[in-house]
Write a structure and sequence with these properties.
Chain lengths: 380, 186
């Protein structure tokens, strides 16, 4: 038996409304602003308005000199500062023709992968929290605190590390550090499984993320999505594997890609899951690096008053938010002539306007969270 | 010719590749494509600013090249040479081949054709160059400042940029800390 209900008001014209989200909003992961044009709960578009955290880091680079710019690179992406350090180091070394000692490269890899785990843990926890699951956030942050302790022992800082130098790293590993980190990794691995079991397959969580904001491989390449966001769409491309820099070619690890386990390939759930999968790969790399690390110096002899010969260079490094692209030009003086940083959050942010069409307003939060956008990295 | 670009990233191979690419581009676009320029670290090809859109489309869609990703687009001001340079970096994920193309825009009235219809990624990157270096991208459908406020004066990454002393009554200058009187310190 069917009951027919007459719905009043059907066929009425609806009106587009303009909503403002941000720049101060708890789930925008920093200072981001969206101008949302919506029809009821459905968005017609969400226009990102960026620049609230623009600190003109590229202009500062032209004033502070080659060595002096290293601490500023921490502030480009303060959630995963190690890889930004490494990008600046690699670009300067390539221009000046400096070779980093093997042990220095290993120290960079160890620090970089610890930083990547740190960043991914925050992404995993924050995604859960944005969707409404508060508890996993505390689990993830507890683990992150422990890694912060390890990094603090390495370089004295917990967030803006400034650990690397042009030519290597600032300090060697402290005594007994390898054993300590290996021991911690044995604790971390089951904990990630625990967070995964607790959060990833929860019915509500999956419903909120699966099949939402699907990015096709072609769209991902067109918008130059990078890192985990690119791989979630099924494109198997990781700089550490495909164009190995530093000592990444000496380690065995896999490049996980999105498989559409809960919906379509490239949806929000796939992007979230990439971070869980990549933590396990980072653990693999760390274990090998900590066991294989050779003896020797950690930094090359670099003149204090560095003047790389005139020229320009384009260096890409796989950060926690993907391929961070550095364009650095020198005019042969002690100050960089031009520095440009194209970051992972930048390209992720630029796709949102296109992607938001037809999504619910509440999904915008899921999109920002799973793209793992960090506002200072967009604005620099 | 397909596959001739093989694995990039190994010195010599990359040089041979870029020569081959330059020959093909020159055959198609004639004098708009310059010779291979040798830098201290990397080599590049220079293209005329009003032909870059055609070259970009060719490099992206031609099966021999298939540079499907625009990984970076930025600019650099050279007042002594009288031009602002726009630097394009392309990547092909399958072969790993990378290519740098540069365009020199006249400093007095810098105009470069947009490539935003070839790669969507160019939209924001061109807006950034417009904002910070003041290059006019012809054909860009949404050319607005992106990082700075809309009413900002000047393009800060130009070498002759002089910052205004204030912005809406907010001072942009700061006294040297050494000249400030600190109470209790003689």
């Amino acid at each position: 038996m069917s009951v027919e209900i007459e719905v009043e008001g059907q066929g009425l014209a609806t009106e587009e409304m303009t909503l403002n989200m941000g720049p101060q909003h708890p789930s925008t992961h920093g200072v981001l602003r969206f101008i949302v044009k919506a029809d009821g709960e459905v968005m017609r578009t969400a226009i990102p308005d960026i620049g609230y955290l623009h600190r003109s880091i590229e202009k500062i680079a032209e004033k502070v000199g080659w060595h002096g710019f290293m601490p500023y690179t921490d502030r480009v992406d303060y959630v995963a500062a190690m890889t930004a350090n490494q990008g600046w180091g690699m670009a300067s070394e390539k221009l000046a023709g400096i070779e980093v000692p093997k042990r220095g490269e290993y120290c960079r890899t160890i620090a970089g992968e610890l930083g990547r785990i740190c960043s991914h843990l925050l992404a995993i926890g924050a995604t859960g929290m944005d969707i409404g699951a508060i508890t996993p956030f505390t689990h993830a942050l507890r683990e992150r605190e422990m890694i912060n302790d390890l990094i603090e022992e390495l370089c004295g800082a917990r967030l803006t590390y400034n650990y690397m130098r042009i030519g290597g790293v600032a300090w060697d590993l402290p005594p007994g550090y390898q054993e300590k980190v290996l021991e911690y990794l044995d604790h971390l691995e089951p904990t990630i499984h625990e967070i995964n079991d607790l959060l990833s397959y929860n019915k509500i969580y999956v419903e909120r993320l699966a099949n939402v904001a699907v990015v096709s491989p072609a769209m991902a390449k067109n918008f130059n999505l990078v890192g985990p966001n690119l791989r979630a769409s099924g494109v198997k491309y990781d700089l550490r594997k495909d164009q190995p820099y530093s000592v990444y070619d000496e380690f065995e690890f896999d490049v996980p890609i999105g498989e559409g386990e809960m919906g379509q390939v490239g949806d929000c759930w796939d992007r979230y899951m990439m971070r869980i999968k990549e933590v396990f790969e980072s653990i693999k790399i760390l274990r090998q690096a900590l066991r294989q690390i050779p003896d020797g110096p950690v930094i090359a002899k670099v003149p204090r008053n560095l003047k790389p010969p005139a020229g320009d260079v384009h260096v890409r490094v796989e950060g926690a938010r993907g391929d961070m692209s550095w364009y650095v030009a020198s005019d042969g003086t002690e100050f960089p002539y031009r520095v440009h940083i194209r970051t992972g959050s930048w390209t992720a942010m630029s796709i949102i306007q296109e992607l938001s069409r037809g999504l619910m307003i509440a999904d915008l939060v899921a999109v920002i969270a799973t793209f793992d956008i960090v506002a200072p990295e967009v604005d620099r | 010719m397909a596959g001739a670009f093989g694995v990039a990233g190994f010195g010599l191979a990359i040089d041979m590749d870029i020569q081959g690419i330059q020959k093909k581009l020159e055959a198609t676009f004639g004098a708009a494509v310059g010779p291979v320029m040798e830098g201290s670290v990397e080599n590049w090809i220079e293209v005329d600013p009003d032909k870059i859109d055609g070259v970009a489309e060719y490099l992206q869609s031609h099966p021999d090249f298939n540079y499907e990703v625009l990984t970076n687009l930025t600019g650099c001001d050279y007042p002594d040479k009288g031009h602002i340079q726009v630097v394009y970096s392309f990547v092909n994920y399958d072969s790993g081949s990378e290519l740098t193309i540069k365009v020199n825009a006249d400093r007095e009235a810098p105009k470069v054709n947009t490539v935003m219809h070839v790669w969507a990624a160019a939209d924001w990157l061109e807006r950034e160059v417009f904002d910070l270096l003041g290059i006019d991208f012809i054909g860009h459908t949404d050319q607005r400042r992106i990082l700075l406020p809309d009413d900002w004066v000047g393009n800060p990454l130009r070498k002759d940029y002089v910052e205004a002393p204030d912005y809406h009554g907010i001072s942009t200058m700061r006294e040297s800390l050494l000249s400030v009187d600190i109470p209790g310190r003689s």
